[in-house]
Design goal:
single chain; mainly alpha; YheA-like fold; 6 helices; about 0% strand
């Protein structure tokens, strides 16, 4: 049994190493780095957070203005469609596709959906 555990651990380590080195994983890490370090994108996110905070405070006391709403919406669009954010979402999507393909291969080998039982439960009905 111990030898089997060692073989499984070694195989899992090789698998994780291969995933870490795949182009999708590298692109995702680069995209995360840009999200964290791009000055313009960081400024826009900070401005959105501040504007949303002012909006929420004004909403709570009933003093929301159309200008506040327009500013939050404009900043949301600037953040959502910013090149850094778009590149991040694209890289994330490609990495998820790679993970789904890996899950499919593993699941075929073991005869059940590996990701479904490996993922932490998020509560709710158990099927979400």
């Amino acid at each position: 049994m111990r030898q089997l555990d060692t073989k499984i651990t070694e195989a899992a380590d090789r698998f994780a190493g291969a995933l870490e080195q795949c182009s999708e994983s590298r692109a995702y890490r680069e995209a995360v780095e840009r999200v964290e370090t791009d000055a313009e994108f960081s400024r826009l996110r900070r401005e959105l957070g501040e504007a949303a905070g002012r909006y929420n405070a004004a909403h709570a006391d009933g003093t929301v203005t159309h200008e506040m709403i327009a500013q939050v919406q404009q900043l949301q669009q600037l953040v959502q469609f910013h090149e850094v954010n778009r590149d991040f979402r694209d890289a994330e999507s490609l990495l998820k596709e790679r993970f789904a393909a890996c899950n499919e291969l593993i699941s075929e080998q073991i005869g059940f959906d590996f990701a479904r039982i490996a993922a932490p439960h998020s509560g709710g009905c158990g099927t979400c």
